[in-house]
Amino acid sequence: MQVIVVGLIAGSIYALIAAGITLVYKSSRVLNFAQAEIGTLSLYATWWISGEHGQPWIVGALAAIAISIAIGLIFERIIIRPMMTAPRVTVAVATIGLFTFLIALEAVWFAGSIKILPKPLNRGGFEVAGVFVSPSQELSLVVVAVVALGLAAYLRYTRFGLAVMASADDPVAAQLMGVPRARVSAFTWGTAGALSALAVLLIQPTVGALAPGAFSGLFIGGLTAALVGGLSSLPGAFVGGLLVGVLEAEAKAHLVTTALPGVQSVAMLAIVLAVLLLRPQGLLGRTA
Amino acid sequence: MSTPLLTLTGIRAGFGSQTIIHGIDLEVPAGQVTGLFGLNGAGKSVLLKVVAGVVPTWGGRIQFLGNDITTLSPERRVALGMAHVPQGRQVFPSLTVEQNLRVGGYVLDRRDRAAFHTQLERVYEMFPLLAERRRQYAGTLSGGQQAMLAVGRALISDPKLVLIDEPSAGLAPAIVEQLLESLLGIRELGLTMLLVEQNIRFGLRLSNQASLLQRGRVVYSGKTADLDHDTLASYLGVGRLLSKDLSAGLKRTSRSR
Amino acid sequence: MTAGKTQGAGVPTSGAYNRRANLALAAVLFIALPISTVQAMPKLLDGGQWLILDQAAAFALAAMSLNLLLGYTGQISLGHAGLLGVGAFASGVVTSRAELPMIVGLVVAVIASALVALIIGIPALRLRGLYLAIATVAFGIAMQYSVFRSDWLSAGSAGIALPRRLWGEHYLTTDATDNATFLVICLLLLLAAWIVDSNVLNTRVGRAFRAIRENEPVAQSFGINVTRYKLLAFVLSGAMAGLAGALYGHTIGFVNNESFTLEQSLLLVTMVIVGGMGHRLAVIIAAATFVIFPFVLPGLKGYELVVGAAILMLTVAQHPEGIADLLTARHRPLATDDEDDDAAMPELPNLPLPSGMVTQRPGTGTVLEVQDVTVRFGGLVAVDGASLRVPAGKIIGLIGPNGAGKSTLFNAVSGLVRVDRGVIRYRGQEIQGMRCDQRARLGIARSFQQVGLAKDLSMRENFLLAQHQLASYGDVSALLMLPKAWRTEQLFRERADEAVSSLGLSDLADMPVRNLSGGQQRLVEIGCLLVTAPDLVMLDEPSAGMAPAAAESLAERLRDLRDKLGRTVLLIEHNVPLVLDTCDYVYVLDAGQIIAEGPPEEITSQQQVIDAYFGAAVTA
Fold first, then answer.
1. Tens digits of per-residue pLDDT, C545-566?
2. pTM of this prediction?
3. Which chain C residues touch B45 with a CB distance below 8 Å?
4. Is the C-alpha dihedral spanning A215, A216, A217, A218 positive or negative?
């Protein structure tokens, strides 16, 4: 039970990354390798504002979100938009380029020192099934729930949200209905940036320090979650995130070895592979 | 007749190094259905895509309602009053019928919410079947129902001009007949349409202006009623198969083949 | 009306020319280059620089290997470094533990990697796109963290040495001349791989790969055994990767698990994309550039990777098709060609006739028998106990409303969906358990509603693809381009050219089929079926999108197939005049069940059929 609670908390954050991956994949059939790294670089803004200059955490957090959105938008404008008709693997390689770019910047600017950030909340927290849920974990559960519901409602009930969904089904037909394709694409990447920042902001208190590439596990977890969710639906991504979080917690609890540090991720991948071989469209994916 | 709604002047277009449209001049008069006919590869669908803005022009000018739209994006053209029934219908399968219609009315809904709702009710009146199935996912509709939805989705924006690309393709004869009846009804309302259709029987009955294309050029333009059998036979290769079928509505100068 | 303009009449076969040009290019690159380098370069380069060139050659080979898999076959591998590692470790064990010469090590490396690649090819039979990518990531990570660290290979991160013992004689790795000699060996092996790769591309093997990349059901309907060719692609790619890995290992003299990481796999993918998927030369250039670039870059105070990543992003954004884009000249014609043939009346298209090799079939017996067949998708019953009989030498129509299950029934007969109940017999033999490509090779050919062509390939290539099952040469013969394969390919090319010109589309022969109009694509598809003159031709709405002229030609060809060649046709069609004109007998399918059958003139007068299908269309 403890393990499950721990897993759900980690999983909720994977869900945010999974939602970003799914959103981009659904609307452009591209795997965004930089999904976790956009937020990681932006987190240095939080460190600078809230850690170095003593501003409240929320100010630094908002700055990180703003920077992540900006990175998403700029990347979309300069790199993604000229590639609208390019093969999808090629676009994925461009995101590998973004990933490398961001992580290289982190290394050049911040290598060699570990940055400490203030905690988001200092009060609160509660106990479930003998597990203490810290204030920041509590925050992350709330934020994830709000984001999941908010995003789903936005996409289903607003005019522009529906336009985004229609674009995901058929971008050219959507354009012929008057949907501005460039704005939809910008929305997708901006949202992906915001989701990345949120995920990194929320997982940082659990990981502790901030160093270049500190959250690489976040991407693998998020990707796994997105795949389990079937890559086609946001609800799938959220359920997938929780599932992967729990599975990973179980794996950590039962596969503790010091000899092979990589064994957990290999075990995770093996589980995912087994799932995929049985259901190639993902656990919650629709059959074509 | 009044000034044309859409005027193409010297349009050229193609893919890669292949020119497909070799300088086309065309006028689409208001309130008429203009049909484009021709052999496969004559450039009908490409021309329609050029008008839509999906395929860029290599030369020439497109004027729509007095605006030069040659370099406008497809969505800007839609905002000016163009609407589409795309080839293969292309409804959004993961959206419901009503959501499809909302996307179809994206521009109008933004401009004037009340007008959009009036239009929505009009479309539901015109196609009661869509109203019945408004919460059904479009992907689960039958081919004929999808065709209705595609037409409704185009009409909802209260367009000035509707581009229709092969509406009857892949539909069973009974459904084609229904679709033709609906479109003829819409024609009666005075809506301007530009139509590409391979089903020559369907195309000739729906259009009242016809342009015949050959290798990317217009070789005949005039009233559909003035088309005679020989012209059709020589430009479209209408022969033994279709002659009998078409004989009802056609002027017949001589019996060929 | 003026007479039809004959155009593109004497278009030469480009295949032979391409092959010669390719070989010449390869010879220059790989023979002239090393000779000149060995002669002149030792004076110019020091040992470290030789090492870089050796690595560049190894990576060029590795990128070529991934290009075969990703560029030709469309199967993504994000674990290719794992295959390189298998080769390197295999050669390491042979040369440093067993102390055998390097040549043995290379051979073992090739075999070992090919076998491992065969194993990772198995998930590829079921997984596609991103899912396959993840499976290969899992392979790469398992290799990196577990296998390459195991005691019997390298004991943790201690790694393994790879001495360059050529024929038993021991070379020192620091000696510049030896590095140069080693470069010659690398380049010669690269040349060998180039030739094999080029043969793959110019034979049915490469066409099968590319058809799989484009559309697997279509590939199967051309008689291509998708399972077999996918595995073959993995094996060939694995063999090349093993060789590349071993060469890389012998270049640097030592490898451990950290030599073959996920990052390297991603780098290989990047090389292929930046070069241009499927463009061998461009991929090699890209790979070499990636290896050499960091060494020639001036000091950027740690910003090398930042700059490199930015250049990478901008390159792919500006050249999404890769730098191959720059190697192939492109032009857009200016407004000068418009006056030449304005009055010309195009020839009405003729669908190609079957090849002369095809013989008359006996027009007797039953070709196809569908007995009480049911197909379910989840809760939906698409075909519900349908039975029909197709006698030899007849044209049988299958009509019915949209969603009646006609295409599903076609899929059941051609093997794309499994039958839940019932029996399908082809010339007396039960076929419902057979794979799609096996049925195609028996003589069942079909067209698709959405046009069953490999759309990114040219019309000419599609006609070559269509002849896949006529090829009598084996895969080894293809890889080495033995005379038999060469001659067969020449014949195929001639026939493809004939087919293209009979459609009157010679000037479009080398354009991707995607760029043709919908109706032209349909003509090409039907043409591809007719070229092999299969015993049973199943056409799914062939006249959809066809202009009247083409439909007339289609009717004529269908009658030719029946009357002159004794072939049998099963036709789904909404074009009522075409059905009435060509069909000998018609079945009407509604809601998965046969509701009527009979000669066409009887069918059109049955009230039940009029209600379900024709509506006002026949009475008008």
1. 788 888 888 888 888 888 877 8
2. 0.84
3. 517-518
4. positive
